[in-house]
Each structure stands twice: as structure tokens, then as C-alpha cells.
Amino acid sequence: MNIEETMKKLTLEEKAKLVAGRDMWNTEKIERLGIPSIMVSDGPHGLRKQNPAEGSDMNYGEGGTIDAVCFPAACATSASFDRAMMEEMGKTIGEECLAEDVQVILGPAVNIKRSPLCGRNFEYVSEDPYVAGELAASFINGVQSKGVGTSIKHFAANNQEFERMYGSSEVDERTLREIYFPAFETAVKKADPWTFMCSYNKINGEYSSESKWLLTDLLRKDWGYKGLVMSDWAAVSDRVKGIAAGLDLEMPGCHGVNEELIIKAVKEGKLKESALDKAVKNVLKLVKKALAGRIEPGSKKFDRESDHRKAVEFARNCIVMLKNEGEALPLRRNIGKSERVTFIGEFAEKPRYQGGGSSHISTSRIDSALVVAERYAERYGNVEYAKGFPADKDVTKEEEIEKYIDEAIRASQSADKIVVFAGLPDSFESEGYDRNHMKLPEIQNKVIETLLTLDKQVIVVLHNGSPVEMPWADEVSAIVEAYLGGEGIGEAVVDVLYGAVNPSGRLAESIPYRYEDNPSYLNFPGHSHKVNYAEGLFVGYRYYDSKDMDVRYPFGHGISYTTFEYSDLKVMSDAKNNTAVVTVNVKNTGSMEGKDVVQLYVADKTGFVTRPSHELKGFEKVDLKAGEQRMISFTLDSRAFSYYDVDRHSWEVPEGKFVIEIGHSSKDIVLTEEISLDGTIKNIPFISNDVQLGELLECDLTKDYIVKAIEKYITAFGIEQGESNSSEMMAAVLKFMPLRGLRNFGGITNKEIDKIVEKLKKLVGQN
């Protein structure tokens, strides 16, 4: 397709038609010019291709969805901290898209987990933008290597379901730049997604779909994005304004309503046809890319069994062991004497393996932990099972609660160990609404607490898409976080419980003791159609660690059946260029092969601006045999040390000291080394009559001069010259005093102040 030639032949009416979907899942076609339609489909943890009802032509949810492989949701895959796995998962989904004639899969979703109550957290990656960006870029590269596009979403600041189609996210620019934008920016620069999906919500009063600053100035000019921007489904309020702002494609179609408005606006001069042409060209570029990778429909089928095995393998790599005391795990296998094990909880029989809403995958292959354990009874030994509580609801009637508890106790009487499969029912978290609390169904807590009275080791396996409160955590022997691990989660959990697989997942989100501890607590989900992001930069561990606040389990936490030791930290910094290369030795000091996630945090000690106590700037997943060691290397560019300066509209590195931290989690830092960087911005005050004396006393270029210049005036403040602590007193008392204030308290003249100001300007180079 020659896009320039095609553009010349298109009529205004055809252009207006091309910038909206033909139906729910397909772009428009212009048969006269040989422009075909291409298909997009929901994801991102599997292929949710819709089968149309007979004669429906894919319209608005009619018909079912194809049987496909359900891979782990993002809440699970993020815990893998594994770029290679994410790329492989992307490649696998890309192959399925090819086989099903799907050209763009809608994902990944990288909105930050601001609150644990967001109903869609299960399909978002992390509370940390670095993790979200790195893993999303790997997934995108995997999918697109197969000639299939992705649609990174939801751009931007879509961190709740409450009023998501109308509410305004009120966020300051620095917070947007440092927390809510970087995952998208990383994806652009490391993976170049074919499409961006803008979010429903407003940002500071303006719809994302109508924001020129967001869609053009930031995305295209600042980041250099060249692809297509589409709307979330029905996210368009003013289509004409959206085209002018940089929204290329409205999805789905709107039965010609906006088409007519576009034509009218162009004819009346309210919309430049050149703006419409930009949108049309981006649509045609997407179609051209899609055609290049497209294969003959029906010429290829994906290997469902092979992909299922991959789903199992991915799930194994994502499971997080949160706690393991008293050798509770692994359960003993059938070597010599087997342990008597009881599974409690309907999740053992009916695992919750994905979330609800637009990402829900239709799959016919679900093996529960109970089925897998029975299948391998010869290897692992028989397990007893009792329902204990339902997987799909809470139970509130007292007699029904007692019945379930009695059943669980009877089944557990002869057990050596009890494994409780707990979690959140489907109705508790889904796209479309937020959770009301962080609690498990109360019956689950009651069953666990009752089983603890039997004086046996109790192990809890969790199936949930976001953090839950665990009032029994200190008393149970082990906790395994399985998240929503896809169709292979039953087998993966059994493998971990019996030690056939060494758990290697790490938390990509903090788990607080209770919801009230979360920094967004007082401002979620908002009021009067607005949500105030008052916590600013302090999201997740950035808040908990800066406040030195205990959490149930910290960001980055996860334990293994083996142990890892870090040593020989070396940091080679380039102060002039504000970069560093970090190396650290990692050794498996245990007796079992395992994977570890080495985490690198950077702490800004310059005091130049308010920043979190530290921020993740590097991670590597490494697989080591027992006794094996390996040197891990990190390269930190200047961005790793930068903050966003809203006055200068740029990323700046403060001059001064930074600390490189290596840890097992954000709260388990084991090695540190301090470095000094020249920075791109120095702690130099702006010199005028209003400059504060404290600023001058803290600046190396001005402190010696200002002490001498004002020493004869400071007796008015009760500071006697020559006192041993006079310099400290001066700094404390005069810190917030403007230079001009000495006229009132010290008797200095305007002429003397002018001379001091002139000298100070020379010292700092502000002449």
C-alpha cells in the first residue's frame, strides 16, 4: 500500500469513516481503494477473540469467544521479575494471534497500582513504574516479533474503576512524570508498541482522549512516538476535539454519528483537514504493518497442548512464597514415610485463575491442585479434601458457617499438615468496580483460625488479584501467594508445595497490614467527580519506606527453598556524565537450585528536592545451582538519578551524594555504596534581595562570604560574635530570613544590601 498515493484518492467522507471502528473489533475498510479491515482483540494474558453470532458481523458482544490458552494475569507475571519470560509469553500469544487472524492484541496494561482496592489491579503490573515499564517492553517485543501489534494501555492515570469514564484524576505534573508516565515512556523507547490506548478518565479536568498535551506534546514530541493512538472502548466525548489533540482511531464504531460531525467540522473550518489527515495516515500505517505480518486465514493452528505447558511453566515462575517456618514446606514426597496432607477450601477444586471483565479468557483446560495431587498420588501421596468454604461467595448464616467448619475439622483430624486454599471470589474484584475493603470473605478467616487450634502446621495458598489482609499471618506456618496464575496454576502450586519447583516470585507490590495504611486511603476513590492524588510521589513502598512504616510483606519480598548471599559490591561512577556501572556477586548458599531477583535501589542524599527514601532502578533474575555464584552487572544512566523539574521542564540530576543499595526487598537492603555526582543542576540559590539567608549559608559558593558580610548585624538576633556555637545558631535562627529583612532587624542599609547582592551574583555566576 502506497500511503501517500492512497491519501490523495480518499474523499473527505472516506477519511471520516476510516478514523472509527467498523464494529466492535474491526477497523473500517474502503473496498474502492483496496484498504482492508484488520482485527483487534482483547488480551493481555491470552487471546479473547470473539466469535460473532450468526449474521452479527462482530457487533457489541454478540456470540461467544474462542477457546484459547489463559496465561497468568499481570498480577502474577509481574512477580516473576523475568524479562525473558515476558518476552516468551508475548511470542506465544503473538503466534496464537497469527493463527486466529488477529492483528493487534489489546495490552499490556501498565497503570500504577495506586490503591490495593482498584478493581482492575489484577491486570496491572506493579506499584513501581520501573518494573511496569521493563516487563511491558519485554512483552511487547515478544508479541511484535511475530508481526502482531500491541496496544499499551490505559494512557494515563487510570488507577480506579469508580467513575472511570467521567472522573478527573487530579495529579501534579512531577508525579505524572515520575510515577504514572514512565512505564509508557519505557515502552515507547524500548519496544515501540504499534498502538497506544488512551484512558477513559480526565486528567486535571481534561479527557485523555482530548488532551493535546498528553497525546501530541508529550507522547509524540517529547517521547518520539510514531504509532497510532486509539480510544478505549467508548472513551470519546468530543470526537472533533480528539482528532485535533492527536486521537487517531475511535473504538468501537459509533454508527456514523461522529463521522458526520467530523465532516461538518472540516467543511465549516472548525477542524483542519490536515489534522484529520494525520489520523488517517496513522490508521493506514497500522493497516500496512498488519498486512505485512498477516498469514492466510486457516493456514496455521497454534499448538494448544504446547501452549498449555508454557502456561504451567510461566505460573511456576510467578508464585511467591511469603512465609515458611518450621520446615512446613516443602511437603514430603513419597520417599520413605509420606506426610498426611489435607486440602481445605473449594479453591483447591476450583482455582480462581484470572480476573473478570474484558480480559477474561475462555479456556477449556483447567487442572485444579486437587486433581493434580490425585494424579500424582503415587509420587506425592494421597491427600484428604474438604470443601471448607465456597470459592464463589462469602457465607454469613451461622448454621452454614458451623457446617463448613465442622467439615474442615473432621477432614483435618488425622493430617500432619493442612493446606488451606483461600482467595477472593470473582465477584470481589473485576473490571468495572473497585473493592470496598482488603478483606477475605469472613468464613475463610474463621476456618483458618479454627484449624489453627488443632495444633498442626497450617499452610495457606492464596488465589487473588490484589493484596488481602491476613489476620492469621503470624500464626500459620507458611503462605504461598499464587495470584491469578492462569490455567496452569493448579499444577504449578502443587509443584511448589511438594518442592518439585523452587518458588522464585517476588512481590511487585507492597502488602500493608490493613487498607487504612495505604497512602491513598484518604483520597480514594474521590468525591465530586474528582480524585486527588494527594500522596504525590509516595506510592507503595516509596511511602512505606520513606515513613519507615512496617508492612505485612514489603515490595520485592519472596523466599525460596534455598538461600542467596550478596557480596563484592562495586560501583564505578562517572560523576561528570552522572552515570554508574554496578556489579555484585550473587551466590546460592543453599542445597537446591533456585532463582533469585537481585534488586538495585538508588537513594538521593543531596536534599535538593523532596524524594522518596529510595527507588528501584534495576533488577535481574538469575538461576543458580547449589553453591554456584555469578557476577551481576547493572548500568545506570543519568535518568536513574534524575527527578523531573517542572520549572525547567526537564529531567535533572542534583549535584551531590547518592547511595547505591542492593537488597532482597525494599526493606531488606544488604549492601550499600555512596557515590558523588556532578549533577546537571547545583544547589545554587537565585540571588536577589529576597534570597533567604539559610540558602546562602547552605551553598558552598556563598556561605563563607555571607557569614562575614552580615556578622556585625546578627547581634539583633541574640547571637554573640565569637561564641563557640555562633555559626550553628546563625544557620538556625536566620534560615528563613530574607536578606532584605536585615533592614528591619539589623539596621543594614539598602546600599549595603545592594553591594552584598552584587557580590553574591558574581560568586554564583548570575551576572
Overview of this protein structure:
It is built from 23 helices and 24 strands. It has 767 residues and is α/β, with parallel strands linked by helices. The chain folds into 4 domains: 291 residues, Alpha-Beta Barrel (TIM Barrel); 204 residues, Glycoside hydrolase family 3 C-terminal domain (Rossmann fold); 114 residues, Sandwich (Immunoglobulin-like), CATH 2.60.40.10; 72 residues, no CATH class. The strands form 6 sheets. It has a 6-stranded mixed beta sheet with strand order 9-14-13-12-10-11, with helices on both faces. Helix 2 packs across helix 11, helix 5 runs parallel beside helix 7 and helix 13 crosses helix 17.
Brief sketch in words of this structure:
The chain is an alpha/beta fold and 767 residues long.
